[in-house]
C-alpha cells in the first residue's frame, strides 16, 4: 500500500456517462477481445500449464522431504524461499522487461524452469531445494511483472479489468489440477519419477512455446 503512493499519472481514461450494457454482453466482449490476441492467448496457455506443473512439484517435494525423514519446518523453509525469490523477481522484473522481449522472457523462463526441475528429483537436502525453489520463484516473479505490464499496454482502457480477470482465472484456476494429478502420480511412481515426469512436461511446454506460431509472431522488441 505504501508503494501505491509513489504511482504518478492517471491510471484510467476519462469516461463519458454512458448506459451500462448487460453483464453477459460485457463478459462476452472481453472474451472475444482476448481470443483475438493470439500472442497473449499463447502466453496464458503456457502459464496455465506451468502453474499446474509447479503445484504438482510442490506436493512431490513435500512428499520427498518427509519420506527422507525431513520435518515440516524444512518443508516450510523450501516454500518460504520460493516466495522470497518471487519477491526479488518482481522487484527486478522491470529491468528484464526493458532488456528482453516478452517472447524471449516466456521461452527463456520456461526453459530455465525445466532445467531447474531436474535436480529436484534427486535432491533431498531442504536448503539445496530451497535455493532451487528461490531461483524458480525469481523467474515466476519476473513473469508476473512482464505479463502484467504487457497486458496493461495492449488492452484498451475499457477492457483492462476484464482481460486481467480472465488472465487470473485461467492462470489461477489451473492450479487446482496440479495437486490432484501429482497425487495420483506419487501413489503410482513415487517422488523421484513424478518430478522427472514434471520436468519432462515443462521441457515439452518450453519446446511448444518455441515453435508456437502465435509466439513467433509476437513482439520481438523489448518493452519501450
Automatic annotation (TrEMBL):
Topology in membrane: Multi-pass membrane protein
Domain Major facilitator superfamily (MFS) profile: 30-224
Keywords: Cell membrane, Membrane, Transmembrane, Transmembrane helix
Transmembrane segments: 39-61, 73-92, 104-122, 128-152, 164-186, 192-211
Main location (coarse class): membrane
Record-linked Pfam families: MFS_1 (PF07690)
InterPro entries membership: MFS, MFS_dom, MFS_trans_sf
Compartment list: Cell membrane
Entry superkingdom: Bacteria
PANTHER family in alphabetical order: INTEGRAL MEMBRANE EFFLUX PROTEIN-RELATED (PTHR23513), MAJOR FACILITATOR SUPERFAMILY ASSOCIATED DOMAIN-CONTAINING PROTEIN (PTHR23513:SF6)
Protein name, per record: MFS transporter
Record organism: Streptomyces sanglieri
Amino acid at each position: 500500500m505504501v508503494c501505491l503512493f509513489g504511482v504518478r499519472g492517471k491510471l484510467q481514461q476519462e469516461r463519458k456517462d454512458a448506459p451500462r450494457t448487460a453483464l453477459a454482453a460485457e463478459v462476452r466482449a472481453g472474451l472475444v477481445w482476448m481470443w483475438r490476441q493470439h500472442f497473449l492467448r499463447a502466453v496464458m496457455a503456457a502459464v496455465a500449464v506451468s502453474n499446474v506443473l509447479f503445484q504438482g512439484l510442490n506436493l512431490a517435494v513435500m512428499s520427498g522431504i518427509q519420506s527422507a525423514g525431513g520435518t515440516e519446518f524444512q518443508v516450510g523453509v523450501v516454500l518460504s524461499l520460493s516466495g522470497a525469490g518471487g519477491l526479488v523477481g518482481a522487484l527486478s522484473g522491470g529491468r528484464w522487461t526493458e532488456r528482453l522481449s516478452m517472447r524471449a522472457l516466456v521461452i527463456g523462463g520456461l526453459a530455465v524452469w525445466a532445467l531447474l526441475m531436474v535436480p529436484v528429483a534427486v535432491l533431498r537436502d531442504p536448503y539445496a531445494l530451497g535455493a532451487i525453489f528461490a531461483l524458480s520463484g525469481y523467474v515466476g516473479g519476473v513473469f508476473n511483472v512482464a505479463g502484467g505490464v504487457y497486458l496493461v499496454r495492449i488492452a484498451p482502457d475499457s477492457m483492462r479489468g476484464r482481460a486481467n480477470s480472465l488472465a487470473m482465472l485461467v492462470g489461477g484456476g489451473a492450479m487446482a489440477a496440479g495437486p490432484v494429478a501429482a497425487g495420483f502420480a506419487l501413489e503410482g511412481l513415487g517422488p523421484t519419477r513424478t518430478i522427472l515426469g514434471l520436468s519432462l512436461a515443462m521441457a515439452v511446454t518450453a519446446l511448444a512455446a518455441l515453435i508456437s506460431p502465435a509466439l513467433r509472431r509476437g513482439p520481438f522488441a523489448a518493452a519501450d
